Amino acid sequence: MAELMYWEAIRRAHDEELAADPNVIVMGEDVGLVGGTYKATSGLYQKYGAERVIDTPISENSFTGIGIGAAMAGLRPIVEIMSINFALLALDVLINAAAKIRYMSGGRVQVPFVMRTPGGTAHQLAAQHSARLARLFMSTSGLRVVTPRSPLDAYGMLRSAVRCNDPVIFIEHERMYNLKEDVPDKEFFRPLEGAEIVRKGTDITLIGYNFSFHLCMQAAEKLAKDGISAEVIDLRSLKPLDRETIRRSVEKTHRVLVAEEDEASVGVGSEVMATVIEECFFALDAQPVRVYAADVPVPYAANLEKVAIPDVDDVYRGALKVMGRI
Amino acid sequence: MIFYRRFEERAFEAYMEHKIGGFLHLYIGQEAVATGVLEMARPGHDWVITGYRDHIHAIKTGAPAREVMAELYGKETGSSRGRGGSMHIFDPTVHFMGGYALVGQPFPLAAGLALAAKYRKTDQIAICFLGDGANNQGTFHETMNMASLWKLPVLFVCENNLYAIGTRINRSTAVVDQYKRACAYDMPASQHDGMDIEVVMEAAKKAIDHVRGGHGPYFIEYLTYRLRGHSMSDKTAAYRSKEEEQQWAQRDPIRIYGDKLKSRGTLDDAGIKAIEQSVHDEIENDVVKFAEESPEPRVEDLNKYVLDDNPDPRWIGPLQNTYE
Question: Domain Transketolase-like pyrimidine-binding spans what residues (chain A) (predicted)?
């Protein structure tokens, strides 16, 4: 058992998958010699060589496409995109190719491909480095979209993602890279599907993913002091979405809040809420609430950035509203 | 080439009978390029990938013609089980890795196939067929750069048929000679007549030897012409003259090669007629019959093939919640 930071857990998963399977390669801008913008691949170039840990030019659509082509030939590439904003340049090859090749080949060609990327708001990175675009990938059939919340999760899910025969979009978060957690020394895999009830409760269900999960957990602690027992669900996988766990929790607590850092319009929260309305409308005792980012590009100024995205207090107050306390 | 010509004429007829739907982009006129290049490659061993004008590339690579026709018919026996259609023929058993309808998208995929071959130290190469229109996409430039930088075993085959849909090359492209664009990426390149299959083969052999020899990528341009429109709805009159079409029809690759064989005494008119008849019979009695008689996909299988149908539960889940 060792306490690892989130980026260290990802680095370890890379290291062990590279060691376990010669088909695994890593590609991206500065992933090799430099070791990755967030250090997630540090030392791997020195250990596995330039043929397996490949520094690419700044050409997202095409180096992602090269990863996808290599996956079609049976390699298992992990492509790092430095910020989810830059994944927009690769949307064609991700959405039109990776997501559809299995289907449009009648299941004859598979694409065991992983794209890792941070997708959040942090440190005044401003609009073009702070997009939250999980919803784009969530709305695409043929992709798996996961948002590991902790070092343990990130380690186990990256190992699973590399071994999965589908294209996986692995969304990290700039503010999670330094989270610490004990990770067992033994190898293990965390399934890529299934939401997880991380905290049990009886009065309200708080649903989050990526960094907003942590806001939900902290809000749950505050709510406990008010005598409110909050259940907290980490969605973990946005596609496929585990509607069953959402339904069962809401049928137990009868109240629900969804928190996300992404913009609200046609987002993850709207999908979750649609699920709640469709599947457990009559179990609801109160109007559900969504907590989400302001519908603006993320501003640079620290004070504006702070109010543009939800914090613990927003989730806490949202929950109080669901509970009829405010 | 006669077989390929008849295959596509027959697809045209089936389209007019509403047995084939969607878009149908015929290769009529360009047959010498795919035929000649793949004749010099190792079909079934090398990787082959192309754009949406893909039927003949697939068949020449080794995909059964009856399965390609069944795919056009949207049948379960089709190359892509009826999920792909004309523009998305796949046959991984012969390493034909698809036709793609996003112009320029195959460039990086081809480089990825080549990367895998190089990494595994096989002597496979990747052959990427695309039209001149694709070269104006960013993927062309990005991929040329990486393929050259990393010395990937990939052969880019530019089928310059002068038109990007209905826009003539001089109206869309600053440098009309496509092979010249490769020099920006320090990649060897050459330009050849794409209507004379012997010229195509000779040039392809040199290019393939270069790539297979570990010297990195090669860009080869063939000047060719599609004798029909871009797709079935395109009548061509809006953008090119009858005179131009007639001039190119004189350079029909089947006619050029037929005339050569006749002048050498290898074949006479009766011999050509006999080939045409046998091709006609094979296409009617095998290819079309198979497509017509094959079953449609089952509607119950609509969701099949979206994700891995048989995933390993260790990494796919579902996550066990100890939920009471």
Answer: 4-179
